[in-house]
From TrEMBL, chain A:
Residues in FAD-dependent oxidoreductase 2 FAD-binding domain copies: 12-376
Domain of life: Bacteria
GO cellular component: plasma membrane
Listed GO biological process terms: anaerobic respiration
All copies of domain Fumarate reductase/succinate dehydrogenase flavoprotein-like C-terminal, residue ranges: 437-548
Organism for this UniProt entry: Orenia metallireducens
Key word Iron present: no
A GO MF label: succinate dehydrogenase activity
UniProt-recorded name of the protein: Dissimilatory adenylylsulfate reductase alpha subunit
Keywords: Flavoprotein, Oxidoreductase
UniProt cross-references to InterPro entries, sorted A to Z: FAD-dep_OxRdtase_2_FAD-bd (IPR003953), FAD/NAD-bd_sf (IPR036188), Fum_R/Succ_DH_flav-like_C_sf (IPR037099), Fum_Rdtase/Succ_DH_flav-like_C (IPR015939), SdhA/FrdA/AprA (IPR030664), Succ_DH/fumarate_Rdtase_cat_sf (IPR027477)
TrEMBL record, chain B:
Name of the molecule in the record: Adenylylsulfate reductase subunit B
Spans traversing the lipid bilayer: none
Biological source species: Orenia metallireducens
UniProt keyword list: Iron, Iron-sulfur, Metal-binding
Domain 4Fe-4S ferredoxin-type residues, every copy: 1-35, 36-66
Protein transport keyword on record: no
A GO molecular function held by the record: metal ion binding
Amino acid sequence: MNNIEIVNLKTDILIIGGGAAGCYAGARIKEEDPKADVLIVDKAHIKRSGCLAAGISAINAYLNPGVTPKDFLDYVKKDSEGLVRDDLVYTLAQGLNKATHWLEKWGLPFLKDEVGNYVAKGKRSVKINGEHIKPIMAKAVEESGVEVLNRVNISNYIVVDDQVRGAFGFSVRENKFYVIQAKAVICATGGAAGIYKPNNPGSARHKMWYSPFNTGAGYAMGIRAGAEMTTFEMRFIALRTKDTISPTGVLAQSFKAKQVNGEGIEYQEEYKKNSTPYRLHATLEENKEGRGPCYLDVTHLSDESNHRLKRAYLNMSPGIVLKWADGEIEPNQSPVEIYGTEPYIVGGHSQSGYWVDSKRRSTIAGLYAAGDVAGGAPKKYVTGAMVEGEIAGLDALDYIRGRDFVDLSNNLINKEFDRVFSPLEKEEGFLPEDLEERLQKVMDEYAGGISTNYRLDEGKLIMARKELRRLKEDLTRAKAEDVHQLMNLHEVIDRVDVARVLVEHLLYRKETRWRCYQERVDYPKKDDENWFKFVNSKYNQELDQIEIIEREHIRLGDLDGSQN
Amino acid sequence: MAVKIDKNLCNGCGSCKESRCMAVCPGNLLYKNEDNQAKIRDKRECWDCAACVKECPRQAIAMYLPAEVGGRGSTLQAQDFGDKIVWKLKKLDGSIEEFNIQNKLLFNSNL
Ligand SMILES: Cc1cc2nc3c(=O)[nH]c(=O)nc-3n(C[C@H](O)[C@H](O)[C@H](O)COP(=O)(O)OP(=O)(O)OC[C@H]3O[C@@H](n4cnc5c(N)ncnc54)[C@H](O)[C@@H]3O)c2cc1C
Ligand code: SF4
Ligand code: SF4
């Protein structure tokens, strides 16, 4: 490891992850205070990193005329069985339209009607040609004066005297170790895919909905540093087109597809609710009862609409266009089969993540969380993630005032250096890929993956807990042959830390609050009397113990910015 | 999902250390080999985001569906013209469907 160069950097505000939340945070901080030094570090290149790499087809969180922030909150609550952080959802809703206008100002094409209004896709959604959203954001960041360091994977926070003072990272291209000191840190690393066995095998295994390169690093770093996490048990499982795992909203909303079962019957009305988890639940039930497969029926489309539908998919999920071509059909010749994906941990769709206050401050001083990595506020999508970045960034500007850098001990630096690079020294050892598959198999079989119809019970979860402990041990005996594989190994290490916290959360909530996402076979009913509260956790690294903390629901009236 | 890189078209983006496709892959999956040709480390790691397909100035990269999920040989290629992107979907019978999509506003004075 003597050929590894140590690079020391200093910045006022460090943003980890230049996705939707990180880019907007950076640009808004610089707009507010051009003198502040801001550094975005990303494991990829921010031109095409994270969830937005392929593009998107709609701004899914926008308040169309007549919709208020309170309406947005009411909708999110209804869709999430009432239990969300009202204060977080509300403060995020207040900034959605401003964030949307910034995207347009930066050059994102919005579809407009004759009088120049955005074309609504639904009450809270507008249509765009979003293929280029990520390069457009990256350019805006560059022009704002934010510094960017691409291809550096952040591995842990620098914590001194219970405050976050920066972060450690390593280059995924060169032999370099980074020690980045900062007065405040914003974590915006997105959520976690790859914890469960994916839908597809072999060379299609990364054909998944969430980005396979968002591997829960932000959660894992927070867990290791002892930050409080919330609601990991509310996993997110998406209802998507089968095999190609493409989004379905465009079919259902923009092209008015009917959701039908194998008998051609619209089945959703037969179920209690029409919320996001219930649409998935209903589809699974139809399959279970022998009325599958289920489809989104687009056979009513005109030939001209076929082409438009494919265009919409090219803007965000090109795979399905190939599927039609390989099937030698046009979209209107056959309904599109739909199915559930593997579970993801993603605070922007469900609400797993850092426990933050309304300023997006985590429970560790100097550390903020925004976007998919932040908890308590489901359905934030691109614009919601952006707003959280903005809120965090503007508060961080206040926080850094009068603060200075501290001296770091060699001991602290050497410890992380060894943790990061020692796998490169090993001649023999497990390969990251093998341990990744073991993690996915354990989670699939014992912690409610696709193969068990997402259902959970205590006996199996306890098996998962045991297996994960052993896996964590085995990870200390894994090797990496180059820095790319080293990144892969740290991705597995991070995912195992996330999975262990997830399993404790799943064990703790003894009710079924969110169908499919958190469905306990042994506690099949929703129990508002005992469980209308948040399940939070904190990890103690010395003892290797995960402590569970219960937190009361926070109502909108409590909107005073204080940490509950 | 995966991409294939046409050896005859790829020129490694010249002598630069980091070619354009390498720069953008969100998974760090592309590299240049000794022959100055772009290669994918492991096609099983590809997400099918098509970032590399759109970035290549020589249209050397095509995307296809893996056989595991029904891929049978059709391909997608793209060319970025600055304010619009043109996709070419090559079907099994050899025919090509073209899509012309505005992806950027070059001037935006109404805001
Ligand atoms: C396929 C797909 C389609 C979507 N379509 C839509 C849509 O049409 N409309 C809509 O409104 N929303 C859509 N969303 C949701 C939206 O993309 C996300 O909510 C949003 O991107 C979240 O922003 P983020 O900043 O939290 O995460 P991301 O945008 O994913 O950014 C996370 C960043 O962190 C970086 N990173 C991760 N780990 C590390 C590390 N260890 N070190 C350094 N950097 C790291 C990543 O490379 C990435 O750049 C879609 C999401 C997906 C996955
Ligand atoms: S961008 Fe195109 S030409 Fe350049 S290295 Fe990649 S495949 Fe080759
Ligand atoms: S399609 Fe995306 S993930 Fe696959 S090689 Fe190209 S840039 Fe990388």
